[in-house]
Each structure stands twice: as structure tokens, then as C-alpha cells.
Design brief:
The chain is about 75% helix and about 0% strand. By secondary structure, it is an all-alpha fold. Helix 5 packs antiparallel against helix 7 and helix 7 runs parallel beside helix 9.
Length: about 260
């Protein structure tokens, strides 16, 4: 039932995104150059009225792939708790849950960055503009990453004082979970820029690869080192995303005509 709720909520979030995000550069049938971008590609107008002249197949494809990707990401985000319920006692899950509380500021920050970046990423359809945007986004993300590292080291050390001495083991887990979100601050903006190149068509495959690794690492490490294994699995998840997505985006940019 939990998995079903996760899937349905992911579908809802996907359609919620698509109700207000401009898609004029998010779907490509061919990927030779920017002649394939659809200039009028919006789900709704600024007044909120549906456009009549949309290409329903393209929108359907984008929606389906976006929804599939969101479902897989939701499974990744919840795999740790589900698998800990199988391999660990309840007190270990409680220690992990307490540690996870320290990631809330990162969750809010990432959500804000995505909301701001969506319209800026969609309107840039020239090589120089995309490169300039990537540099600016990376510099800003690097600042957040640096601040996040300090937060990741010091703030989770408050776990025993906030939750009690029995949550002492939440400190290291919290530090690793926060480190995972520091990496996400660098990776997610790059991930979003990838929609400019039609990468929605392969993102679900990358997410599926991440899900497989997360599940495998949890199954191997949870019986050995406890909740720490789930935190390590999420860090590996972010690193896999970076290693798979970044080279593709850089290659797409280099292939574009100036």
C-alpha cells in the first residue's frame, strides 16, 4: 500500500509540475541542432488557458517519461526505510529517522532552486546562453555546497542534545545524509539543464540504474553496518547521477553549432 501511495503521489507531482512549467525546450524528436526545438511548446499560457495548437504526442511522451522518472526517484527516496524495515530493528530505524531530520533545510533549499531554475532553463536555447547559465548555476551551487559542508559537519553533532543521548549514533548518519544533499546541490541544477537537450528520454534509465544500485547497496550493507549503509547508498546514488549525466550534457553542448 505504501508503494502504491508513493507511485500515485509521484504521478500527481509530475502533472503538477507540467501544469506550470514551460516545455518549449524540453522535448526533442531529433537532436542534431536547435532547429528541433518547438517554440510554442507550453502546456498552458500565462493566463492559464490551454493552448489549442499543441502537439499531443510530444506532450504525451514528455509527460509519460517525466512521470516514470519521478516514480523511480520516489522509490529511491523511500527504499532506505522500506529495506531497513526488513533488515533492522525499530530502534535502528528511529536513529536513522532522527538523523534525517537534519536534512530538512537542504530539502527546502533544493526545492527553491528547482522552482527558480525551471523557467530560466527552459528559455535558453542557444549554446552560449546555456554555457553561461551552467557557469552561473555552478558558481551559485558551489557557494551553497560550501555552506552545506559546514552545516553537515557541525549541526548533526547536536543530535544527542536535541533527541537524547541514545541518539548519539545519529551524528555520523546525519553527517552522511547532509553530505548527500550537498552533492545534490551541485548535481540537480545540472540535471535540470539536461532537459534543454531532450534528456528526459534517458533520465528514467539513469534513475533506474540508480535505483538498482541503491537497493543492492542497502541489501549488502544494512546487515553489516546498520543505518549507515542506507546513508552510503544515497551518496552513491548522487555520484552515479553525476557520472552519467554530466558527460552527456557536456558532449551535447560541444556538438551544437555556435
Amino acid at each position: 500500500s505504501i508503494i502504491a501511495v508513493t507511485i500515485f503521489s509521484s504521478v500527481f507531482v509530475s502533472f503538477l509540475y507540467l501544469s506550470h512549467v514551460p516545455l518549449k525546450t524540453f522535448y526533442l524528436k531529433g537532436e542534431t541542432n536547435f532547429n528541433f526545438f518547438r517554440k510554442n511548446y507550453f502546456l498552458i499560457t500565462d493566463t492559464g488557458k490551454n493552448l489549442i495548437n499543441q502537439h499531443s504526442t510530444s506532450i504525451g511522451s514528455f509527460t509519460s517519461l517525466m512521470t516514470l522518472s519521478n516514480i523511480i526517484v520516489a522509490l529511491i527516496m523511500n527504499a532506505d526505510i522500506w529495506l531497513m524495515g526488513v533488515f533492522l530493528p525499530k530502534d535502528k530505524i528511529g536513529i536513522y529517522s532522527a538523523a534525517f531530520r537534519f536534512t530538512i533545510p537542504f530539502v527546502i533549499l533544493l526545492s527553491s532552486i528547482q522552482t527558480i531554475l525551471w523557467p530560466h532553463a527552459s528559455k535558453n536555447n542557444e549554446k552560449d546562453k546555456i554555457k553561461s547559465m551552467m557557469v552561473k548555476v555552478f558558481k551559485i551551487s558551489l557557494i551553497f555546497f560550501s555552506i552545506g559542508l559546514l552545516y553537515s559537519f557541525y549541526v548533526p553533532q547536536l543530535a544527542p542534545k536535541i533527541f537524547g543521548i541514545k541518539y548519539y549514533y545519529s551524528v555520523q548518519i546525519g553527517q552522511l545524509l547532509c553530505l548527500r544533499y550537498c552533492l545534490a546541490l551541485l548535481i540537480n541544477p545540472v540535471h535540470m539543464i539536461g532537459y534543454n537537450f531532450g534528456l528526459v528520454k534517458i533520465y528514467w534509465l539513469i534513475n533506474l540504474t540508480q535505483l538498482i544500485f541503491v537497493v543492492m547497496i542497502n541489501i549488502i550493507l544494512l546487515p553489516q553496518i546498520g543505518p549507515m549503509g542506507s546513508a552510503i547508498a544515497l551518496i552513491v546514488n548522487e555520484m552515479i547521477g553525476l557520472l552519467l549525466i554530466l558527460p552527456i550534457i557536456l558532449r551535447k553542448i560541444n556538438k551544437l553549432a555556435v
